[in-house]
Amino acid sequence: MRAVDAIIESLKAEGVEAVFGIPGGANLPTYDALYDGGIRHVLCRHEQGAGHAAEGYAKASGRVGVALATSGPGATNLVTPIADAMLDSVPTVFLTGQVRTELIGTDGFQEADTTGITMPIVKHSIMIQDPREIPRAIHEAFHIARTGRPGPVLVDVPQDLSRADIQYEPVDGVSLPGYRPTTEGNVKQIRLAAKALANARRPVIYAGGGVVNANAAKELTDLCTSDRFPVTCTVMGLGAFPAPHDQWLGMLGMHGTRSANYAMDEADLIVAIGARFDDRITGKLSEFAPRAKFIHIDVDPAEISKNVPAHIPIVGDAKSILPKLTREYRALETDGSRLDGWWERIRGWRDKHPLGYEDSDDAEIKPQYMVEAMYEATNGDAIVTSDVGQHQMWCAQYYHFTKPRRWINSGGLGTMGFGLPSALGAQIGQPDDTVVCLAGDGSLQMTSQELATCVTEKIPVKVFIMNNGYLGMVRQWQELFWDGRYSGVDMGTSPDWVKLAEAYGAVGMRATQKGELVDQMKAALEADGPVVLDVQVSKEENCYPMIPAGQAARDMVG
Amino acid sequence: MGEPGTKEVLDLQDLQVSGGIHTGRRHILSILVENKPGVLARVAGLFARRAFNIQTLAVGPTDDPTISRITLTLDGAMHPIDQVTKQLHKLINVIKIRDLEPSDTVARELALFKIAADADARAQVMQFTDIFRGKVIDVSKRSMTVEVTGTDDKIEAFEQMIRPFGLIEMVRTGEIAVSRGRSAT
Q1: How many domains does chain A have?
Q2: CATH number for position A218
Q3: Which among A127, A129, A196 is the nearest to B12, CB-wise?
Q4: CATH number at residue A20
Q5: A553: in domain
Q6: How far is B172 from chain A (nearest CA, A)?
Q7: What is the pLDDT of residues B30-55, one digit of tens each?
Q8: Radius of gyration over alpha carbons of chain B, in Å?
Q9: Is the C or the N end of chain B the one with fewer CB within 10 Å?
């Protein structure tokens, strides 16, 4: 069997149903094998789109996403999605073609050192040197991508080796001497954590994307509700705890709620679960949660004590650790009334600083209202992807996610252009769900070519553009911190989105009146196939509240 | 402190930070890696990306042809060593890391010194070489080359002694180390 046919067999053995990619010279053999290989191939219009589609697929479904690209420019176009998948721990496998082995190192046509370029942004990479290694390499890639802390794995296959004839034998069981992730969690540490919780007067549970990755939303809710523990989530963790809940403080961090950030500031015990104390969470590190002791639960030991030193480190999988922690905590039969004072303080912040905005009293559509309209039109039950910027933060604030894997965005790398391709990937992963991409008019122009993919492949994503004519978040910073000197943020003549959608063969719609917005959104959701709804919102609205970069939670503005 | 698992009260103030601590001393890490192409680049790249400063680095084969050993030294005042070892452990090709205890380790480095020593200075340089149990391995009319083996302290001490004669150049291998006693490093 040709090595490429063995690749297809290995992919099928891993349960792959769909891959995203673009062919080229060096991966022609792979595409020949795909021709009748029995795996759906989604032809994207740019490798960046293919990579983000694989991420969207993985984030929505929890399965490993796969993207293919040829050598050289095909592979370098994957660099952004690979880095994105690394920072957000997305289980993905990238299969790149490479020039023939005799050309490697000669600066041959479309040659780039793909493994070298991507080395700092992959969980692991494998450069194939012997075609007989290929099936094992594919299985190792999937094993590494999905276990432990998930992440991107790249397999680079020289063209000549992919055509070689090999003996294919199914591979069962992958064992790597240098890779044995800890999942269980040390029992003694878990007991100590339970005990610390039982003795805390001002505890906060701070959950991140790791809880979503571990499929541990229920386990998190059980822990939080084993007493009246206040809960906050990072932008990656939203949906891990159901938002409309008495114990829910809202998102924390730069654009989080005051209740969440103030609670972190005054907490005596913070339980971080699958979260990594990113600078968008901590603000000024030296003034972050100055009174708190930290329990840090993470499957990646290197995250523990990286930014904030932990007092009780617990290495392992949230799904395995949280039920044990809940059981140990319950066994202590602690008096919940010790939290009364703490809740009184939190309610004070909630009453004084609810999340809100000044709505228009005319037809003008405020961007926050647009998110609320989206929530109403979708019954709060869509898979929502977003680009990066103000619209992303407003969506995180006002679309109250109740379930995990419903909120798909680029949190760590902050990749503009992520929304549309990740939406199409999410739709393929979850064909029965409604998928909405909340796009920025700036971001969407980075990957709008993927509308062609949606139309051709009949992927019915709904793209709602929050159109303010600006690179809005940068404009906001220039207004607030750079004396209003708007430099390079006015989008000038944007495309006519309705015509652009129609040019691609999609449905194009425009919304300018607040009163009609919800109905227009519902119409878009009911239409067959992909729809672009251009929503004209207030141009210079700011996203509040916010912690200015490098400052402490106490210094929140707006 | 209240024992975990009991109902005894635990005072949160008694909890101590674990990890992320600067030890303030020099560390020797002995790292076993798979002998595959690109592994050294991954280790070096990790240090560059995380802004960890390597003092010395030595790489060589082990008795097992599929495994290589990297010995590197770094300053524990500049970096929390646990963070360095944890990041290294994330590399799939890294099999084992040992942060060697100074008191329980034998470490050696080899250095070559090319010294501007003419006939007048030669006897004195040879005397120092003897004291440091070094070897003269090359001589010309206007120079001598000396090989010295030892800990980095000893090599630095020798460097101090011969510098006044005129040190043309010095080449050092970086330290390699094994643990004392019967058990493998």
Answers
A1: 3
A2: 3.40.50.1220
A3: A196
A4: 3.40.50.970
A5: no
A6: 28
A7: 999 999 989 999 999 999 888 888 88
A8: 22
A9: N
ipTM attached to this prediction: 0.88
Instruction: Tell me whether residue B17 is exposed, middle or buried, using C-beta atoms within 10 angstroms of its C-beta: 0 to 12, 13 to 18, 19 or more.
Output: middle
Q: Are strands A92-98 and A152-158 parallel, antiparallel or unpaired?
A: parallel
Domain boundaries B17-100, corresponding CATH code? 3.30.70.260
Give the closest-approach CA distance of B36 to chain A in angstroms: 10
- Residue in this structure with the two tokens 């390079």, named with its chain if needed: A488
Q: Are residues A376 and A318 in the same domain?
A: no
The answer to whether the CB of A59 falls within 8 A of the CB of A90 is yes
Q: From residue B77, how far is each of B24, B53, B80 by CA, in Å?
A: 4, 11, 8
CB contact under 8 A, A178 and B17: no
- Sign of the CA dihedral with B115 first, then B120, B121, and B123 last: positive
pLDDT of chain B, 185 residues: tens digit per residue: 457 667 777 889 889 988 778 888 889 999 999 999 899 999 999 998 888 888 899 999 999 999 999 999 998 888 889 999 999 999 999 999 999 988 899 999 999 999 999 888 999 999 999 999 999 999 999 999 999 999 989 999 999 999 999 999 999 999 999 999 988 88
Taking an 8 Å cut-off on Cβ atoms, the answer to whether A199 and B90 are in contact is no
Same domain, A131 and A193: no
Cβ-Cβ pairs closer than 8 A, A with B, add up to: 95
User: Do residues A312 and A202 both lie within one domain?
Assistant: yes
Class of the domain covering B106-179:
alpha beta
Any B CB within 8 A of A177 CB: yes
Kindly state the DSSP code that residue A502 receives in the 8-state scheme.
H
Residue range of the domain that includes A129: 3-163
Residues of B in CB contact (< 8 Å) with A are: 2, 4-7, 9-12, 15-21, 33-34, 37-38, 41-42, 45-46, 49, 80, 82-83, 86-87, 89-96
Assess whether A419 and A515 both reside in one domain. Answer: yes
For residue B4, the chain A residues in CB contact (below 8 A) are 188-189, 191-192, 194-195
